[in-house]
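Thread title: Can someone regenerate the structure for this chain?

I was given the following input by a collaborator and told the matching structure tokens would be attached. They weren't. Posting the sequence so someone can regenerate them.
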Amino acid sequence: MSHRNNVACWICWIVTAAIVSGCQTSQTSVPAAARPSVKPDDPCAERLHDICGQLLLYHSIHKKLPETLEELEALDSASRPLVCPISGKPYIYDPNGMQILGHPGRLVLYDAIASHSGMRWGILVGYADSGKPLQARVILLPEDSASWGSNILGP
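Best answer:
Regenerated them for you:
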């Protein structure tokens, strides 16, 4: 890759970061008493923050989310693999996402298995207000079937 392409790529990332003002991490989906000891600097959460940036950049260019994760990977060939660094399993992705009770936006990407102290990391995307840019945030979801089933409303 030429020096000019490297500079252009960095400028795109900086502009996207400035527009979006970061991707947040939320563990609020789990009551504090039931929350396992999962650190916010979990390598999976960090990888999902990177993917948030890729999703937002793709959306800013194409005005939609990618249909597949392969489209996202094509945007940045230097990106890390789109698999959980703990389980080694590919993330599950659905551009239409699922609604989660009590959380604005839709769950578009999440861990294939609950390999984080019985929890799954995922990415919620949505708009704060109409006409505003897409927002993305990393969220920790409980795995037990009772709360997983009752928290997800479906597509």
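Residues 3-154 form one domain.
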